[in-house]
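Quick bug: Stage V sporulation protein AE output formatted oddly.
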Amino acid sequence: MKSYLMAFIVGGTICVIAQILMDKTKLTPARILVSFVTIGVILGALNIYDFVIKLGGAGATIPLPGFGYSLAKATIKEVDSKGILGAFTGGIKGTAGGITAAIVFGYIMALLFNPKTKD
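Here's what came back:
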């Protein structure tokens, strides 16, 4: 039960920070999303995000900083095993499953429902 609560608190805190940034600054949602991924990459490369993941579990790995963390860790692992070429292939290999799932499920939802552009 404690792990569910911590996941909710950590994930909720990340979302609250994003909402405050959208409400109180002139940053666009796209810039906030890119910033969160970049922060996840930086914290992942410095091994700081590991602590957040230990604390919050899925509450830390599911939001966008978790995606950045995955990119950083996969790239570091690939560079260690393949050298500089790993800097170009690591992020793709590490996040390919999640990206593929997002594309496939997005396509299925577009087939099942009638997507429309916002006016």
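Actually, after a second look the formatting is fine. The CA atoms of residues 31 and 102 lie 20 Å apart. Closing.
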